[in-house]
Specification:
single chain, 142 residues, four-stranded antiparallel beta sheet, two-stranded antiparallel sheet, disordered N terminus
Length: 142
């Protein structure tokens, strides 16, 4: 059961949300009933991780020297923003990059359109007839 606990800790270290990265998973099992609690906890962590990250991350293996991105070598522990609006982190076992863009999902698509701003890595939803007027967005992914 200690191997499963270590696997869970490694999973949390590869999480694509910086807020989730600070969590510590400490699991101690004493009897078979604890095993069920472990799997329930694992299920909940994976469920919330999927909700918070929305799987808009990608992973690349790191070399023994660091992480290579766009012909630049980053040292372990480095954090940077790419030109295509991803925040990347170089860890000992992988480079983890997650999108910074919040994608609007629930808005008036008949009268509104999303405009992407590369400099701010954002999408602004505006009226099709007058781009100076913002539209109401009810939810988004990102």
């Amino acid at each position: 059961m200690e191997e499963a606990s270590q696997g869970l800790q490694d999973l949390l270290l590869l999480d694509c949300s910086p807020a989730l990265e600070r969590r510590d998973a400490v699991l101690h099992t004493k009897d078979s009933g604890e095993g069920e609690k472990f799997f329930l906890l694992l299920y909940l962590i994976l469920l919330f991780s999927r909700t918070l990250c929305d799987a808009r991350c990608y992973f690349r293996p790191a070399s023994k020297y660091g992480c290579l991105s766009n012909r630049n070598l980053y040292v372990f522990g480095a954090v940077w923003k790419t030109e295509d609006c991803y925040q990347c982190r170089c860890k000992m076992n992988a480079m983890i990059c997650c999108s910074l863009v919040l994608i609007p999902k629930n808005y008036d698509r008949a009268n509104c359109v999303g405009l992407f701003h590369k400099k701010s890595c954002s999408i602004r939803v505006v009226k099709k007839t007058n781009p100076d007027i913002s539209c109401k967005v009810y939810n988004g992914i990102g």
